[in-house]
């Protein structure tokens, strides 16, 4: 994890930024409903349950705002390769594992 960041939740994520996040094992998540963005305040604590399972097989992840006491859905728009890189803990590990196969 880079500086403790595990995921980025945004209205949209540009392709190159998304690739950079994935390479550093930071999960890019987009709001399923962009209106949920306005419900989050600076300093709110967000909890993402079962993120590992969602990366493996899902297109959505449930996010709980522990401060504001509400839930919302985030979208995981990931290719198979993106999923493999995230599950390998980043591009460096993914590349190392492929070389050892």
From TrEMBL:
GO terms for biological process: tricarboxylic acid cycle. One of its GO terms (cellular component) is cytosol. Residues 3-33 form the Aconitase A/isopropylmalate dehydratase small subunit swivel domain. InterPro entries: Aconitase/3IPM_dehydase_swvl (IPR015928), Aconitase/IPM_isomerase (IPR050926), AconitaseA/IPMdHydase_ssu_swvl (IPR000573). Coiled coil: none annotated. It holds the Pfam family Aconitase_C. GO terms for molecular function: 4 iron, 4 sulfur cluster binding; aconitate hydratase activity. This is Aconitase A/isopropylmalate dehydratase small subunit swivel domain-containing protein.
């Amino acid at each position: 994890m880079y500086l403790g960041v595990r995921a980025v939740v945004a209205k949209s994520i540009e392709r190159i930024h998304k690739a950079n996040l994935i390479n550093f094992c930071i999960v890019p998540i987009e709001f399923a409903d962009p209106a949920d963005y306005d419900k989050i305040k600076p300093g709110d604590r967000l909890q993402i349950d079962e993120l590992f399972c969602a990366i493996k097989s899902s297109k959505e992840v449930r996010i709980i705002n522990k401060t504001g006491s509400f839930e919302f859905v985030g979208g995981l728009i990931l290719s198979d390769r993106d999923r493999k890189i995230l599950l390998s803990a980043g591009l460096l590990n993914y590349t190392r594992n492929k070389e050892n196969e």
